[in-house]
Amino acid sequence: MPRPAPGSFLNEEFRCRFGSLPYRLYTPKGSTLRRMPLIVMLHGCSQTASDFAIGTGMNGLADELGFLVLYPQQSTGANFARCWNWHNPDNQVRGRGEPALIAALTRHVAKLGRANPGRIYIAGLSAGGAAASIIGAAYPDLYVAIGVHSGVPRGNIRSLSAAIAAMRGRHESGSSERLPRQLPTIVFHGDKDRVVHPSNADGFLRNIERSGAGPLIARSHSGTAAGGRAYTRRVYGNLRGETLLEDWSVHGSGHGWSGGHAGGTHTDPAGPSASREMVRFFLSHRR
Question: What pLDDT, on the 0 to 100 scale, is given for residue 157?
Answer without folding.
Answer: 83
